[in-house]
Amino acid sequence: MADIKTIDQLDAAGKRVLVRVDFNVPVKDGAVTDDTRIRAALPTIQKLVDDGAKVILMSHRGRPTGEGFEEEFSLRPAALHLAEVLGKPVAFASDITGEDAQAKAAALREGDVLIVENLRFDKREKKNDPEFCAELAKLGDVYVNDAFGTAHRAHASTAGVAALLPAYAGYLMEKEVSTLTGMLDDPKRPFCAILGGSKVSDKIQVIDALMDKCDTLIIGGGMCFTFLLAQGYSVGTSLKEDDWVERAGEMIAKAEQKGVKLLLPVDVVCADKFAEDAATKTVPVDAIPDDMMGLDIGPETVKLYAQAIAEAKTVFWNGPMGVFEMDAFAVGTRDVALAVADNAEADTIIGGGDSVAAVNKFDLASRMTFISTGGGASMELVEGKDLPGVVALGA
Length: 395
What we know:
By secondary structure, the protein is an alpha/beta fold. It has helices at about 35-50, 75-85, 100-105, 130-140, 155-160, 170-185, 200-210, 225-230, 245-260, 300-310, 330-340, 355-360, 375-385, 390, and strands spanning about 15-20, 25-30, 30, 55-60, 90, 115, 140-145, 165-170, 190-195, 215-220, 260-265, 265-270, 280-285, 295, 315-320, 345-350, 370.
């Protein structure tokens, strides 16, 4: 990943600074219900305010159609919430690059903050449309990207506009990139990677990349059943990808060849249906009933995984161990999260997505070294892909 310029190299005083943030936050009854992403951007916003910049924030929220304003996806609740946590007024433009945004951007004084409306109300955003990029660029004198969670998308606000203005990384972007690349390039060893989630097909490139870097690779979640099939076990009605069994077998062989310890479940919690009130039983992996599905790792597997985690000096985790949204199948994910939290000697990095939701659900976030805000972006970076939003900030 190229060296990137950061806001510490920017003389922002008096300049209109156009900042891409990730305010894709949940809203209920007009109020933000989880402000993690807003708070993650505060250090960058505060630095620019303190430096006397005229700060113009832009973000997407949700998945609007791109045909114009949709009330349920408005950024107004995020603007109101930011004003609360920032402790100062935040102006809000009812459009993105139109008359209201232009007038309010022009009226900003040093230290003022403005948020424009949801970028994805304009379908040109996702198309990285040159005309839309030019309209965005007119709002600012310089550009700052602090939205790592969207850095893997070549959109107007993440890549296109960065080519038209002097471009810098915000503190969150800088921390995400340096932490994840540092983990991959020079981890403290032993390096233990934990991967969960439902499908091998979604994670195969991540598995492949981590196999070249880590000492121990732990597999959980629905995708473990495709690996168990590759080992010759019967998995009942568990989630499986028949097309990927051969590839999973190749991964098992690759781990052996490279001397990577690949840990797979030795027991699983099975259910007669995919439901909270299902009848359950815990069985060894060679005894999964034909009419039941595995929905969580079992207690012996937890012990095996926890021991490997305890011995590690670097731990990277992406993806739950089971259907943690249902309490009946949340124990494996909770106990793995506890094992990661309990290893105070290690660098513990949570790679976005459902793992973050799990860590928050079990109230363990404060005990992790670093929690990535970008699930898809962090996975692509781990895979070794160039992220358009990061490449655009190259020094």
